[in-house]
Amino acid sequence: MKKLLAVLKKSRFFIFLACGSIVILAILFSINPAIVNFERDISDDYYRQKIQSPFIDLSTTEIDSDEGTRSHGLKLTPRIFPALLIHFATNHGQHVFLVSSVCWLLLLSTTYTFSKTHFESDACAFFLTLCIALMPVSNVCVGFTSHPWKPFDGTPLALLSCIICFQKKYLLQTLLYFLAYWSDERVLVATPVLLAVNFYLGKKSLGHFLLSCLGPLIGFAAYLVLRVSISAALQWNTPDMSMVNFSTISLTTQSWQLALWLPFQGAWLIILFAFKRFFNKKNYFDLILMSAISLVAISSIFIVFDTTRASAFIYPLIILYAIAIKDSYSKHARVRIFALSSFVSLLSPNFFLIAMGTPNICYDTPLGYYLLKSIAKAII
């Protein structure tokens, strides 16, 4: 077995073998891709209109009388980049979830590449990527079985992973930030986490950190200028932000245990080991900094109703804490931590939580369940 692994590792296609194994495990135990189980078209009228006309102002439409559905539709107006990609794909006869599914594969491959480079271990890269593949962030990309009508989320999540992967490529990172802001405004919540990743990867170098700050600053400034220009030219109205407010906290906190579990699942073990390292070394600077960043990021999921999708955008915290424990644990210890984290995530079901009125909680049944069910029926 060791000889076989040694031969595979030397193969130029090893990254495809590793990521392919991760995809298979995720499909069997965690996700149910919409591209496999749902029609090529999309049922939600807001998304359909946005895909057909990427620059349309959805605030001028009155498609749905439901306040929550209408408010969500109105927020799609500035999300032009994923709309353009899906518009191109569907015009060429492709599935509406093809772009988001490809973005999921891009997220996994860039996460694996970054992890292998930084941790200098194929096993660490495999288990850390597997841990992320088994969490709700993956379901958000490929489409929850209970809510498969939102195909835009994979694009910004893949861009976040690319920003992490392409360290010290400042011009490329600026472009990626710019495209990410045009994909989803929730990227703003992830931006401090990405900057913290750059800070720790740069060995806390102030010069490197300031250079890494230029990407989001220039990207966001360019986004604002272009958005104001497009809004004036196309006469866009101000987006409806009524569904994002602090009054939702009273609803989201009704399921606070599940809301806190969703973003990290088994990766909570990585976070706990990181804090153990901070306390043991009496590293109060890292303790306070990481706690503050985590508090801001985690708090963001409590001020929106769509808790699960909001939690997907703070998944870079897992990478941040994995970086934090690199110098404190041996390679074998890190492999065990990441493996245990991925195993817990594998056992944990992925829930879709919407905190509107009484919290609406749905479980996402993995495709592997249906495959095993079909095999069992055929045998019996």
Structure characteristics:
mainly alpha, 2 strands, two-stranded antiparallel ribbon, 66% helix, 380 residues
Short structural summary:
With 380 residues, the chain is mostly helical. Helices cover 66% and strands 3% of the residues. It has 21 helices and 2 strands.
Q: Explain this structure to me?
A:
The protein is mostly helical and 380 residues long. The protein has 21 helices and two strands. It has helices at residues 2-10, 14-29, 34-37, 45-52, 67-74, 80-91, 98-119, 122-133, 136-142, 154-165, 170-181, 187-201, 206-234, 249-252, 256-261, 268-280, 284-299, 307-312, 316-324, 331-347, 367-379, and strands at 350-354, 360-364. Strands 1-2 form a two-stranded antiparallel sheet. Helix 2 (14-29) packs across helix 7 (98-119), helix 12 packs parallel to helix 19 (316-324) and helix 16 (268-280) packs antiparallel against helix 20 (331-347). The protein is globular, with a radius of gyration of 21 Å.
